[in-house]
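Customer escalation, tier 2.

The customer says the design service returned an amino acid string that "doesn't look like it belongs to this structure." They asked us to rerun it and document both sides in this ticket. The original structure tokens are below, unchanged.
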């Protein structure tokens, strides 16, 4: 007869669950508050959500200090893994959430922001993404992935336009397909190694000398397809432009930044040990993904007539650019990935926020989009400050020095050259030059064209103090990033280096 095993709470190290539990408790608190007192102003829900996100951020600061002294933290039967990658990714996730949440405080009333469920789902999304990056357990990664995805599907649909429902259904369909691929790939790796822990899988495959390389490649192919959908890599990108167009500009900005950093971290844990083990097939496949994603999305962005769709293809291109870090596989490359995405977060936040402040509640007859290029014609004459801000974000996205994303691109190109990938670095630089064309196209419309017949129209229709503050913060970080790059890079490198990646 088996003897019962006593497990002490201390050995479980439940504090590793603190950041996610704070977000989950916040979501449940909002729902309980609504049950007790319905019909509260949306400002109350925004403040409650921000409070719990600040508590979440505070717990991450504690983890960062503890990690700096003691290294990787394991907890809850060693399922939770709080290492440098997890802490850095969670910082980007939580800060990104805190920056996007105030965009709900628009001057005009949009019905989705009046529902407490919106804010609860938003916090559940954050919790799911935090679970994804804080483990190397394939099952918990899947739970976090689906928790965040199911919440995002609903958040998109709540925008309540015909295109929003279409976007939610497309995102759900592609997400379900990606979940199926992930499950099958994880099943193959489990069958080969007898474990669902990525580190253990790596150890078993290495000890076995990759004798079952055919089965390994089958499992990795399914996982690669799964993350290709999540990161919208070509040819798995088809959902992205339609989902961005159907979402509110605020939600489109959110899904272009926050969920992707979680997927990048999981991809780093899954694929880098295989690339470094000499699995040439995977390295070549990733190389093709990176080159095709950057190049094809840039070409598609060139022919867009809608600014939001252009930014959608732009986000795909940036994701392809950052994926190069997985091929290079050095500490410098992984540090460059986090630096790039931190800079990209502020700039893309500013760009989508600028689209959000001129969003109309109802489209005019015959108008398909709020954000056609023609609407920005002569904007410097009607709203000069808004034109300057939007132009600033476009210059940064184009990688023009000394603005934010330039430094991310510079360090990523440096990592490619240092890692011996000179041809890849040249392709990345060439794609940056192509991308500059369609970013400058919007600047030409704003500064060099005459206002159209509706020049009297006010562009900043949704601009409230909170939105102006967020846009201002994004602009300051974009412009003065040169002063933040070195300390930020040192901070990132110390965490990546101590994680063993």
């Amino acid at each position: 007869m088996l003897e019962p095993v006593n497990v002490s709470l201390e050995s479980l190290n439940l504090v590793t669950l603190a950041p996610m539990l704070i977000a989950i408790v916040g979501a449940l608190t909002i729902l309980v508050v609504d049950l007790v007192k319905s019909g509260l102003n949306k400002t109350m829900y925004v403040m409650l959500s921000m409070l719990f996100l600040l508590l979440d951020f505070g717990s991450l600061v504690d983890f960062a200090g503890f990690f700096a002294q003691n290294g990787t933290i394991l907890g809850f039967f060693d399922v939770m893994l709080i290492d440098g990658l997890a802490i850095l990714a969670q910082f980007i996730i939580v800060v990104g959430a805190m920056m996007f949440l105030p965009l709900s405080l628009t001057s005009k009333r949009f019905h989705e922001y009046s529902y407490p469920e919106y804010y609860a789902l938003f916090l559940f999304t954050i919790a799911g993404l935090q679970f994804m990056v804080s483990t190397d357990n394939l099952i918990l990664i899947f739970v976090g992935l689906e928790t965040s995805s199911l919440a995002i599907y609903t958040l998109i649909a709540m925008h309540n336009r015909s295109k929003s429902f279409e976007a939610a259904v497309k995102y759900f369909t592609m997400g379900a397909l990606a979940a199926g691929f992930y499950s099958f790939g994880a099943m193959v790796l489990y069958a080969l190694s007898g474990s669902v822990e990525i580190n253990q899988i790596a150890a078993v495959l290495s000890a076995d000398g990759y004798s079952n390389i055919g089965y390994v490649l089958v499992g990795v192919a399914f996982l690669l397809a799964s993350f290709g959908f999540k990161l919208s890599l070509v040819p798995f990108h088809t959902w992205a432009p339609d989902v961005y167009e159907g979402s509110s500009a605020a939600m489109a900005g959110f899904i272009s930044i926050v969920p992707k950093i979680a997927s990048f971290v999981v991809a780093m844990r899954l694929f880098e040990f295989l690339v470094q083990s000499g699995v040439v097939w995977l390295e070549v496949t990733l190389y093709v993904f990176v080159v095709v994603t950057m190049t094809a999305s840039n070409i598609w962005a060139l022919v867009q007539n809608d600014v939001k769709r252009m930014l959608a293809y732009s986000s795909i291109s940036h994701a392809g650019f950052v994926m190069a870090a997985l091929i290079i596989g050095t500490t410098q490359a992984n540090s460059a990935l986090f630096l790039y995405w931190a800079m990209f977060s502020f700039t893309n936040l500013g760009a989508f926020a600028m689209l959000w402040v001129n969003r109309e509640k109802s489209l005019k007859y015959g108008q398909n989009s709020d954000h056609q290029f023609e609407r920005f014609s002569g904007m410097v004459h009607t709203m000069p400050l808004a034109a300057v801000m939007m132009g600033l974000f476009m210059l940064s996205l184009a990688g023009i020095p000394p603005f934010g994303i330039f430094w991310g691109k510079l360090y990523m190109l440096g990592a490619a050259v240092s890692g011996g990938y000179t041809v890849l670095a040249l392709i990345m630089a060439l794609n940056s030059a192509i991308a500059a064309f369609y970013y400058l196209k919007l600047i030409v419309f704003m500064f060099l064209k005459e206002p159209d017949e509706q020049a009297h129209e006010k562009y900043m229709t949704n601009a409230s103090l909170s939105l102006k503050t967020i846009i201002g913060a994004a602009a300051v970080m974009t412009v003065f990033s040169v002063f933040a790059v070195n300390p930020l890079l040192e901070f990132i490198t110390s965490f990546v280096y101590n994680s063993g990646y």
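Tier 2 assessment: The sequence is consistent with the input. The chain has a mean pLDDT of 85. The two ends are 44 Å apart (CA to CA). Sent an explanation to the customer and offered a walkthrough call.
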